[in-house]
Specification:
Elements lengths: L10 H17 L17 E2 L7 E2 L8 E6 L4 H18 L5 E7 L3 H10 L5 E5 L3 H6 L7 E5 L5 E6 L3 H14 L5
Parallel strand pairs: 3-4, 4-5
Antiparallel strand pairs: 1-2, 3-6, 6-7
Helix pairs in contact: 2-5
Length: 180
């Protein structure tokens, strides 16, 4: 039987802080919601499926949601219909732009997905993840960025959590003109 180690006095808080620090190093201590917030969004060029080449800066003055997804990603497939139904459709007439970018897959896969879903998004592909890498160092998807009308990143969400979409909608509504 191993002897039980007792930590008391001054050592207890130091050991606790050390263990928390170690946990932060191994999990990066990042909720995934803050990377890039407040900094200018990359002004990437993209070609909406079936459309002419555009740049993110073409939408300056409007809030833009940039969502990185893949058709093989389960959480992405849960998030996209909710993003469309709860945010894109109700707010499109007030100026919201949503760009859904399929990463690491063939353009034909994203085009097929777009055809079978009636979403209010501009769809684009990023087969080599070059646009994705301009936004984040994290590799997980889905990732969603809210670009404020001034071109800065206002919110960064990693993964899919229904409550995150409520936060996203609230932030978008703060940036839009009032409904008439």
């Amino acid at each position: 039987m191993l002897p039980r180690l007792r930590i008391s006095g001054v050592w207890r808080p130091l050991v606790t802080v050390g263990l928390i620090g170690l946990a932060c190093l191994t999990t990066s201590c990042d909720s995934g919601h803050q990377e890039g917030v407040g900094s200018p969004a990359p002004d990437f060029e993209f070609q909406p499926l079936g459309g002419k080449t555009k740049r993110l800066s073409d939408f300056r003055g409007k809030p833009v949601i940039v969502n990185f997804f893949a058709t093989w990603c389960g959480p992405c497939m849960q998030e996209l219909p909710q993003l469309d139904r709860k945010i894109a459709r109700p707010l499109a007439d007030r100026g919201l732009v949503v760009i859904a970018i399929g990463i690491d897959q063939r353009p034909s896969d994203v085009a097929d997905f777009e055809r079978t879903n009636d979403y209010r998004f501009l769809f684009a592909t990023d087969p080599e993840s070059t646009i994705f890498q301009q936004f984040t160092r994290q590799e997980s998807i889905p990732q969603t960025f809210l670009i404020k009308p001034d071109g800065t990143i206002g919110l960064h969400l990693v993964g899919y959590e229904p409550n995150d979409l409520q936060t996203l909608k609230r932030k978008v509504e703060e940036l839009l003109p009032s409904a008439k």
